[in-house]
Every structure is written in C-alpha cells, then in structure tokens.
Amino acid sequence: MAAAAVVRGLLAGLLALAPCALPAQEHAGHAGHAMHRMHMDATGMVMNANDSELPRDCAEIAAEHRFEVEAGADLAAARPGGTFGYSQHEFRVQPCSRITVTLVNRDRVRHQWMVHGLPRYLYPGGMFHLEAAGGHSMTGTFIVPSDDATYLVHCDMPQHMEKGMKAQLVAGAGAGDLWSVPGISGDRNRSPYLPAGAVPWALAALLAGFGAAALALARGRRQA
Predict the structure, then answer these.
(1) Distance of CA 109 to the CA centre of its chain
(2) More confident residue, 199 or 84
(3) Rounded CA gap, 72 and 107, in Å?
(4) For 137-159, what is the mean pLDDT?
(5) Is residue 135 part of a domain?
(6) What Cα–Cα distance (Å) separates residue 182 from each residue in 47, 88, 110, 187, 200?
(7) Nearest to 181 by CA among 105, 79, 103, 71
(8) Residue 115: which domain range?
(9) Which of 24, 122, 141, 174 could tie 100 with a disulfide, CB 3.0–4.6 Å?
C-alpha cells in the first residue's frame, strides 16, 4: 500500500510539472520569430521584418533603399475599373540590398504592402508584411537575396489587389514583368470601363460622327 501511494504521488507530481514544460517550448518557438520582429498594435502590423541577417548567398549589404508608399482610393482614379491604388507600382533595387518601406494609409480602411517569394529559411512563408490601419503609417525593413528576381507586391485584403493594389519589386535585372500591374503591364482580363474623363470625349466623338454622317447624306441628296 505504501509503495502504491508513493507511485501515485510521483505520477501526480509529473502531471503537475507537465504544463510548466509547455510554455518553455512555445517560448523557444517564438525565439525564432524574435529575429524577424513581429510588431502589432492599434495602428497596424509588421511581420517578418529583418534588418540584419543576411541571406545565405549575400556576403554583405550591397545597397540601402528607402521607399515611402501611399495607399488609397484616390490613387486609383486614373485606372479604369480601379478602386484602390499605390502611389508607386514598381520598386527597383539591387540584389542583396536592405529595403525599408513606409506604408502611408490615406483611407479609413486597412491596407497592406506584402512581398512574396523571399527565401523561406529567412522569412516564414516567404513573405514580408506591412499593414497600416486607416489614417496611419507603418515602417519595416527586409533584405533581398542575390537573385535577379521580380517579386509580387500586393494588398491581401479581399479584392484590394484585384481592384488596383498590386505592384512589383524588381531586384537586379528582374525576371520579367508580372501581369496586371497598374502602369507597368496589361490586365489579364481587360476592364470594360472607360478611363476617368473619357465619357465627355466619347460623347463628343459620337456626336461628331452623327454630324458628319448627316452632312454627307444631305450633300448626297442635293447632288441627286
């Protein structure tokens, strides 16, 4: 009986200690993310920031690049069918460069500036992510590898990319333009909408066509 009581006591002690071991494992898992500096507050979020760890194929930082990117609905006015836009849709950098981006949100809704295709051993999910709440800005830094590559940049909020918030980050010579980047490449599906300000010109051209046709018809009748 005494031996059984001792065994029960040991089991109870082990069960009591087991939950204490879990937080240590979770903390160790998060230690890897500390290097990538995830920051979140009421104004927005930065995910997978990295300003110091070099990609495996880079011996040193080749260049420093800084971009301030505005995001808002008014930036899409010149694009047929556009609802949102960036102030800049193409970013050219050197391979192995350190890039600092400030996203300035001019709207009341959230906007993002995300890069895809980065090395996964350095950036979980292969991405760098900025998000700014309405009326706020957010800044983050990341380092690109040595490849000549074209990286997708976009806002991942529902339908924001499809409605104009798409860009490309070109490292070195790049790898060709991405499709449907405003001001850079054509849409995969052409929008049926006319550009802003085109309606008056279209109506004027239509009326001029009718006038020319009527004049030609009148002349033909007189000659007959």
Answers:
(1) 15
(2) 84
(3) 5
(4) 98
(5) yes
(6) 25, 9, 20, 8, 24
(7) 79
(8) 32-171
(9) 141
Query: What residues does 140 pair with on adjacent strands?
Result: 101
Let me know if residue 103 belongs to a domain: yes
Compute the distance between CA of residue 133 and CA of residue 71 in angstroms, rounded to an integer. Answer: 11
Q: Which residues pair with 149 in a beta bridge?
A: 171
Which tens digits make up the pLDDT trace of 53-69?
999 999 999 999 999 99
Query: Which single residue is written with the structure tokens 């995969």?
Result: 188
How many domains, in total, are found in the chain? 1
Q: How far apart are CA 178 and CA 19, in angstroms?
A: 49
**Whole-angstrom Cα Rg for the chain:** 28
Where is average pLDDT lowest: 58-62, 137-141, 208-212? Answer: 208-212
Q: How many Cα atoms within 13 Å fall on the side-chain side of residue 29?
A: 7
Supply the CATH number for residue 38's domain: 2.60.40.420
